[in-house]
Amino acid sequence: MAIERTLSIIKPDATRRNLTGKINQRFEDAGLRIVAQKRIQLTPSQAEGFYAVHKERAFFNDLCTFMTSGPVVVQVLEGEDAIAKNREVMGATNPAQADEGTIRKDFAEDIEANSVHGSDAPETAAEEIAYFFSGLELVG
Ligand code: CMP
Asked: Residue 136 C-alpha to ligand 1 middle, in angstroms?
């Protein structure tokens, strides 16, 4: 297995409920290392740019409104097979379908306010990391 990096976002529903530490604990317990992290307030154009791949979807406007409704924590997680491992720790997009013990099962409010985002493939991970971080900010 290769050492990978993946982009993670702790979403506004989770920062609002002060869950950043509890969620970070899940990542670290799974062997993922937080090699970059910052708490930011997304602007509408930053949220729209990040989710541009979904711009034709019915949920796009609501999703961008939600993602700008409060602070988010953007972070880079590093570890063996980090992309798949993070998706395992997060659970399914819809918390109603998420496995027991996953972040979304335990913390998500609904399919939109689902507490965390994680990259889905190596190419998107590289693009998403570069969207928020410069190379100098990644300290492994
Ligand atoms: P995320 O992994 O950040 O990727 C896209 C986001 O769109 C997803 O998590 C959800 O927060 C949100 N979303 C809202 N409605 C839907 C839906 N019907 N299907 C998929 N994603 C949705």
From this structure: 30
Instruction: Identify the CA nearest to 68 among candidates 20, 29, 11.
Output: 11
Residue in this structure with the two tokens 């993670």, named with its chain if needed: 8
Q: Is 127 in the pocket of ligand 1 (CB under 6 A)?
A: no
The pLDDT tens digits of the residues spanning 58-102 come to 999 999 999 999 999 999 999 999 999 999 999 999 999 999 999
Cβ-based neighbours of 84, under 8 Å, separated by 6 or more: none
What does the pLDDT average to over 43-56? 98
Please state, in angstroms and rounded to a whole number, the distance separating the CA atoms of residues 113 and 122. 25
Ligand 1, from 63, 75, 87: best to mutate by most atoms within 8 Å of Cβ? 63
Helices 20-29 & 82-90, crossing angle to 10 degrees? 130
The arithmetic mean of pLDDT across residues 96-118, rounded, is 98
Check residue 1 and give its pLDDT: 75
This prediction has a pTM of 0.98
Catalytic residues: 117
Give the distance (Å) from ligand 1 centre to CA of residue 131: 19
